[in-house]
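Researcher: We plan to redesign the surface later, but first we want a full-length starting point. Tokens attached.
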């Protein structure tokens, strides 16, 4: 082998020796990239996991608050119906009393007619003989009939007195129970919601995520924001004109003022609220004896004077006394006026006979009643807080009819007296009624973009990264780390109170890599994870979507609702619709549509992602 070949082989070996280990930097760089990819994967996986947990907590809290409000609204609706039942019961008891007074008046009038017949027969006994013989023969018969009529009147009078002693007490008690108990139970039940409004549903959030304690970072912002949004929604659902608003701040500041305003019968808003309860109470009188007393009671009570008839009318309802003439003496006027039950400050009842007619005969004595001759005959009650009066039958007592009676009654032979007026002009004043009590009324809105004022429940949660990330060390997560290459520079460490180096550091001439998700350098609102959820309390009667929300039927429900739809409704309500209605310019409409499409297609689709990153 020549010297040249030997030197050539030695050069090749040296060259190969110099190239050995050149793959090591590439391998190290690849390992670094792989490590960073693993760290990013672990960080992203944990962040997604924590984000799902946090969103579930917000959804559960929003739905739970909506469910509690729906239950409170249903309780209010049921107790409002209890109030209506009590009003109907009061009407029923007063209708029994009114009809008992009517029967007393009818039987008493029959007795008065028979007494006048007896007087007529006694007049006939004074005729010369033999004309007086028939009268002498039947005198005993009519005396017996008159005594029998008096006995029946005594029974009717005693029955009336018993009912008169009990019915007004029951009516007053039912009104007092509504005024002293029902709305207080409603108020207490609705006031309990405030405990969750004040705390921002933090207890429910903590139950789903134990790291979200009251002392955790940024929880004060969660509580304040959730409490403010939900309080405004809850407060706006109630109409103060019907009673107290159960929102705690209104109850403390305006409570006594609301009750004072409700007692003001001249307040238009109070009148409107009370008229709603009045109309529902009048429209739901289930027992026919309350709203339609057209039975032929006159025929039953005038059997002793043969065929005398008429149109029997009567009903009981809530009316406004200020708009209605007092029922004396024509009690039927109380329910002929369609506009007289505006406020329901009076409980009125009447029973009367209209268009009385017929001819009554007994042997050779006749009683003739002309049409409308006994239109005054009846019984009327006006019960109110001032101790309303009862216009009732005023019988003449034994000894014959009193003078000054009904002008359209003719008795042959002529009687020595005349039929008494059957309704007193003054009456008694022991018929009290508490009136329409305060209650809770929903405050509806015709704005569909405002969800018809059906309240939403909002839960915004921020979870600080320190609650789900920790630094290196025993028990820590090594993929959360702050890599720093000083490179001759200096680093001003920015650690939190737990000593974890996550975000916040200042570098002077240094290069760093912070793998913290949700840190100071990667957050958009508050450090950590942010989520928002919306629930909604809505009213729906099955099969009837067009029934407006109200506090009289227990059909309130809860559901989760989209956040973006609410934000779009806010835009349409306050800006979009107003701009459209105030502009005829095609260019302006095009701009409005562009903005609307931007909000719908860009803003609403990215806001949750950007805000909650």
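Model: Full-length starting sequence:
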């Amino acid at each position: 082998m020549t010297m040249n070949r030997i030197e050539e082989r030695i050069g090749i070996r040296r060259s190969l020796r110099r190239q050995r280990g050149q793959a090591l930097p590439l391998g190290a760089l690849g390992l670094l990239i792989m490590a960073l990819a693993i760290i990013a994967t672990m960080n992203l996986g944990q962040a997604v996991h924590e984000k799902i947990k946090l969103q579930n907590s917000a959804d559960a809290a929003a739905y739970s608050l909506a469910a509690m409000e729906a239950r409170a609204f249903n309780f209010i609706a049921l107790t409002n119906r209890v109030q209506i039942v009590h009003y109907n019961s009061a009407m029923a008891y007063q209708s029994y009393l009114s009809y008992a007074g009517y029967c007393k008046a009818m039987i008493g009038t029959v007795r008065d007619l028979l007494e006048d017949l007896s007087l007529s027969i006694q007049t006939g006994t004074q005729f010369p003989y033999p004309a007086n013989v028939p009268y002498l023969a039947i005198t005993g018969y009519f005396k017996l009939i008159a005594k029998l009529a008096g006995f029946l009147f005594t029974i009717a009078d005693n029955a009336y007195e018993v009912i008169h002693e009990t019915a007004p007490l029951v009516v007053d008690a039912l009104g007092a129970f509504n005024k002293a108990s029902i709305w207080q139970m409603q108020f207490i039940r609705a006031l309990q919601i405030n405990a969750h409004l004040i705390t921002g549903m933090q207890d429910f959030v903590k139950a789903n995520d134990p790291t979200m304690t009251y002392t955790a970072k940024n929880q004060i912002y969660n509580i304040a924001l959730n409490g403010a949004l939900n309080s405004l929604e809850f407060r706006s659902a109630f109409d103060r004109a019907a009673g107290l608003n159960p929102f705690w701040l209104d109850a403390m500041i305006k409570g006594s003022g609301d009750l004072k305003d409700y007692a003001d019968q001249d307040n238009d808003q109070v009148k409107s609220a009370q008229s709603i309860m009045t109309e529902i109470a009048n429209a739901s009188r289930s027992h026919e004896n309350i709203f339609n007393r057209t039975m032929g009671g006159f025929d039953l009570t005038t059997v002793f004077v043969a065929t005398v008839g008429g149109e029997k009318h009567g009903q009981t309802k809530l009316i406004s006394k200020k708009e209605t003439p007092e029922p004396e003496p024509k009690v039927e006027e109380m329910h002929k006026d369609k506009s007289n039950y505006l406020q329901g400050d009076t409980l009125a009842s009447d029973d009367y006979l209209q268009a009385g007619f017929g001819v009554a005969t007994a042997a050779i004595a006749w009683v003739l009643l002309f049409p409308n001759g006994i239109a005054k005959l009846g019984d009327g009650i006006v019960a109110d807080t001032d101790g309303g009066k009862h216009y009732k039958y005023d019988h003449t007592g034994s000894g014959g009819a009193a003078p000054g009676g009904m002008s359209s009654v003719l008795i042959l032979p002529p009687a020595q007296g005349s039929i008494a007026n059957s309704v007193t002009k003054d009456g008694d004043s022991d018929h009290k009624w508490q009136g329409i009590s305060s209650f809770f009324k929903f405050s509806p809105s015709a704005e569909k973009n405002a969800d018809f004022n059906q309240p939403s429940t909002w839960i915004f949660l921020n979870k600080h990264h320190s609650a789900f990330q920790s630094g290196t060390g025993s028990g820590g997560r090594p993929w959360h780390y702050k890599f720093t290459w000083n490179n001759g520079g200096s680093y001003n460490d920015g650690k939190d109170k737990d000593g974890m180096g996550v975000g916040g550091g200042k570098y002077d001439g240094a290069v760093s890599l912070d793998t913290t998700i949700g840190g100071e350098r990667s957050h958009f609102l508050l450090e950590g994870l942010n989520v928002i959820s919306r629930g909604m309390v809505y009213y729906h009667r099955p099969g009837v979507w067009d029934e407006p929300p109200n506090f009289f039927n227990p059909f309130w429900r809860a559901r989760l609702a989209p956040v973006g739809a609410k934000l779009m409704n806010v835009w349409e309500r306050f800006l979009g619709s107003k701009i459209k209605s105030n502009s005829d310019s095609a260019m302006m409409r095009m701009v409005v549509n562009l903005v609307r499409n931007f909000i719908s297609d860009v803003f609403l689709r990215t806001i949750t992602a950007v805000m909650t990153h």
